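FAQ: What does the model actually see?

It sees only this:
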Amino acid sequence: MYLGFFGNGLFISANYDIRFGSNELGWGVHAGIGYTPGYDKLEHYRDSLGVKYTKDGKYANKLTIPVGVSYVMGKKNRPHRVEFGLGLTYMNGDSELFDQETTNFTWLLVSKAGYRRYYYNSHFMWKVSFNPLISLNGDGAVPLPWIEGGIGLQF
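And it is asked to produce this:
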């Protein structure tokens, strides 16, 4: 289990990761639940006569549900691991950060390339990864650079 910061949960997420093999190497899956805080937004614009207007906007808190598969490489009984993966994240609500269309939900395709460090005596693990995101809502999907940090415990 690990707590992810940014990454596939977008802001913060609690995730369960399981490997199909008998150790921490090889193919596995992860799933979690996350939270992305809302924010206030001020929009400034001018009408056709040049008069300046300000519009207040409030974006609500959002629930995220990340799922995915990954492959972890490394040497058995060594603490260093390299991870590659692909997943989907569901977010309830619209996000202008990822696409230009207004929708009631957002689906994001998330890729992952990262590093994991295990500490065997304490069962502690930390990770960092590069996670480009692509919105599956709308046209013209452009990857958005994203990073993830995480800490967790292995059982």
